[in-house]
Amino acid sequence: MKKETLIRVLEGIVVGCLAGLTAVFYRLSLTWAESGLFWVLNQIRQRPVYIAAWFLVLIGLAYLVAWMVRWEGMASGSGIPQVCGEAEGKLETCWWRVITAKFVGGTLSILGGLSLGREGPSIQLGAMAAKGYARVRHVDAKREREFLCCGAGAGLAAAFNAPLAGILFVLEEICHGFDHTIVMMGVVATVTADFVSKLFFGQAAIFHYSSETLPLSDYWVLVVFGVILGLAGAGYNAVMLKVQGIFQSMKKVPLAVRIMIPFVLAGILGLTFPRVLAGGHEMVELLESQRPTLLMLALLLVIKFLFSSISFGSGAPGGIFFPLLILGSYLGAIYGTVVLSVLPIPDGMWEQFIILGMAGLFAGIVRAPLTGIVLITEMSGSMHRMIDIALVSIVAHIVANVTGSKPIYTSLLENILKRQKKE
After folding, report:
1. Whole-model pTM?
2. What is the pLDDT of residue 207?
């Protein structure tokens, strides 16, 4: 093995460990925050005084999150556009400030119940941990970019236990091309980060759904579903950007008041539809344990979507990655319920449509179909669905592109750059 290759491998291991541990501790922090949230909601039910006190706490959390965002603006939102911008040389961030603000702000946001995911922030946290290591090593700008990209992939791998999806996401979404050095170092980093994550969270798949084979004669059903998901992805992007634009146009309204809106809304939903709060694990458990009615599925889907758009649009630290997968799963559950009621398709396909909905909506929103295919395959722990997932994802990707909708992270990066020019 050449010396340079050995160095890249060792660097990948170090980056994977640093990024993986950072993402793992963030994941643990959000898990504790979400558990604390639902514990509080159980304690305050039917107790008006406690409810009033909780709303005061939510207002206080909103002020703290707003303070963190004012202190480090690059910690706002998902974090993926910021990483993409830095990889392209268009942005420059302070790695330790971003880690601090993202970690604290993201944890407080989940404690308050905001519908935000851990995966985007994990990508940014992994990238910033790698950047910090690069600064300690005093490497040149090109090497620092390589560390940053590999750290981002390692962050995703640790968040989802999906090492292959981690490196594919870097190539598709961050680098927008094949870079041999990043591939070699990145694979080592993502596998290392995945190993670190499994030491804490075990080796079980994140989603537990049974597999069912769809007859080839019925594959047109998947094509139709892909078209629906492509249109849904384009619509999702339009609404998310519109809501973010509305919040950003409220310049005369203090940031703390703007961020207070989703926190207060979370308090109301916590008393009425608590399943839609935080990342959406309660909604996942509902689909794993029973088959809700069409009305319940549609109601939870709409509320989760609207609340997610408000939570993200406010600028609070947190991502859209996991919430969009939840939305895709509910679109799949709805589609599966309708299809099974009118066509002689195996009953087990209902759970298959849940998985397909995640992959297809991801492809329609993010426009990284290869990442989506591998990600959902890794998260479901089965290669059995890959052909079906690939078909739905590719169709959704094509349909979303035909509508003229831009990939969500591209649009978000453009908005960040526009704001910086105005400032």
Report:
1. 0.88
2. 63
